[in-house]
């Protein structure tokens, strides 16, 4: 795998994680699910097409790695827990405030 193809895979994975979070939030709020999915679809299509053009392997099947990373990123982004509220540090007992 060449460096440009590795960048395509990592871009697809990070885009999937980002848009997967948006998908999960839209699902939680009962909003339209196509808004976070359509930009991810467009970006993934461009990355897969780019990987087909850049693939120099004998079989030419490295585009499947980009497509798989894209789908896995979307699924992981939607399924990973998202903290609702940032946890505030608890006050320490017996230590005087400075």
In short:
The protein has 3 helices and no strands. With about 100 residues, it is mainly alpha-helical.
Index terms:
mainly alpha; elongated; 98 residues; 3 helices
What does this structure look like?
The chain is an all-alpha fold and 98 residues long. It has three helices and no strands. It is elongated. The longest helix is centred in the first third of the chain and has 27 residues, at 3-29.
Helical/strand content category: mainly alpha
Radius of gyration: 19 Å
Instruction: Tell me, briefly, the overall form.
Output: elongated
- Quaternary structure of the protein: single chain
Report the average pLDDT across residues.
86
Largest sheet: none
Strand content: under 5%
Estimate percent helicity.
55-70%
Order of helices and strands: HHH
Alpha-carbon distance between the two ends: 55 Å
């Amino acid at each position: 795998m060449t460096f440009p193809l590795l960048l395509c895979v990592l871009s697809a994975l990070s885009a999937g994680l980002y848009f997967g979070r948006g998908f999960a939030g839209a699902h939680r709020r009962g909003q339209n699910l196509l808004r976070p999915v359509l930009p991810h679809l467009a970006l993934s299509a461009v990355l897969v097409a780019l990987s087909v053009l850049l693939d120099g392997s004998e079989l030419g099947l490295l585009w499947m790695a980009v497509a798989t990373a894209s789908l896995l990123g979307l699924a992981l982004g939607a399924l990973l827990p998202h903290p609702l509220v940032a946890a505030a540090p608890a006050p320490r007992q017996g230590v005087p405030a400075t």
